[in-house]
Design brief:
single chain, 192 residues, alpha/beta, Rossmann fold, 2 domains, 4-stranded parallel sheet, 4 strands, 51% helix
C-alpha cells in the first residue's frame, strides 16, 4: 500500500491536470512493483480518470473500480445506476464508459446536487463530520434517482459509505471501495 497525500492529488485535480495525477499514481505503482505486488488497485474513484495515462506505462495490471462495480451491478440484475461521488468523478466518463460496456445505463445528479455532494465530501466527511443534514441530502438525491428509474446507486467515493448504506438508502447501494477490496482479494487468492 502506498499513496501520496490527498493535498498533492488535489493540486493536480483542481487544475484538471490528469497527467500530473497519473505521475503520482505511477510513482506509487513503481514502489509497489518493487515490493513484489502482482497487480494494483486504487480505492479512490476520482483519480481513475488518470488511468488511461497510467495503464500504458504501468509495470503491473490494475483492477478498475468502475469495472468491478459494473460487473457486480450486472450480476445483481440492476439496469440503471445512480452515480454519486465527487463532482469530478460524476462529471467524468469513468463510470458511464464501464457501465455502457455492460449494457447498463446511469443517471447523474443535477449540477447543484453535484456541487453540494462535493461540498459535503470535502468539507465534512473527509474531516469525520457526520451531520444528519448530510445524510438527509444524500437520501433526497438518491430518492430523486429512484424516481428517475434507477434501481441502485453507486457510492463512488470512499467517504460516502460513512453515512449511506443499504439500511438508510432509498436504493440498494454499490459501495465501490468495498466491492474493489473484495475483487482484489478474489484475484489475489486466484493467483496464488
Amino acid at each position: 500500500m502506498h499513496t501520496h497525500s490527498l493535498a498533492e492529488y488535489m493540486r493536480c485535480i483542481d487544475r484538471g491536470d490528469w497527467r500530473g495525477v497519473s505521475e503520482l499514481m505511477l510513482s506509487s505503482a513503481d514502489k509497489l512493483a518493487k515490493t513484489g505486488a502482482d497487480f494494483l488497485i486504487c480505492p479512490d474513484n476520482t483519480i481513475h480518470q488518470a488511468l488511461p495515462y497510467v495503464e500504458p506505462q504501468s509495470q503491473l495490471p490494475w483492477l478498475h473500480i468502475a469495472e468491478v462495480v459494473a460487473t457486480q451491478a450486472a450480476e445483481k440484475g440492476f439496469r440503471r445506476l445512480g452515480l454519486t461521488g465527487t463532482r469530478w468523478l460524476v462529471e467524468s466518463e469513468v463510470y458511464p464508459e464501464k457501465l455502457a460496456a455492460r449494457g447498463l445505463t446511469w443517471m447523474r445528479p443535477e449540477q447543484t446536487e453535484r456541487e453540494e455532494i462535493n461540498r459535503i465530501i470535502f468539507e465534512e466527511l473527509v474531516y469525520g463530520i457526520f451531520k444528519p443534514e448530510a445524510l438527509a441530502y444524500f437520501q433526497r438525491v438518491i430518492g430523486l434517482m429512484k424516481d428517475g428509474g434507477c434501481d441502485a446507486v453507486v457510492l463512488g467515493c470512499t467517504e460516502i459509505p460513512l453515512i449511506v448504506d443499504d439500511s438508510n438508502s432509498p436504493l440498494p447501494t454499490l459501495d465501490s471501495t468495498r466491492l474493489l477490496a473484495r475483487a482484489a482479494l478474489r484475484r489475489a487468492v486466484e493467483q496464488h
